[in-house]
Amino acid sequence: MEEAQKFAQDYDSPSLKPGDTVSMMGIPLPAAYVLDLRTYDPAATAARLTIPILVLQAESDYQVTRKDLEGWENALAGHKNVTIKSYPGLCHLFIPAGNPPSPADYDKPSHVAKGTLDDIANWVAAR
Q: Residue 6 and residue 95: Cα distance in Å, rounded?
């Protein structure tokens, strides 16, 4: 958890320069990449696309939350090329989440929930 907090602090640091390096989970990232991410708005980019888009949300995801999904829903509202689905009780990996959801969910052997796989396969087949 300390490492994630350090990354978040480095990510938001006003003194971050393109030549710096930021560590994320022990992986060194060029600060130029992080600085570019700060200006990237994926939902706004997706809203400009005309290709089919599938957005999936695991409702018990503690990393990508319901609030994040709401941002996508707002950005993509009215777009006929977009399908949005959410899955209760699943964590970020689309496997059953703990109660409460936590990083320990990632250590549990499991498979992606069948309903999620079926939805993806059906969405792809329909296109």
A: 28
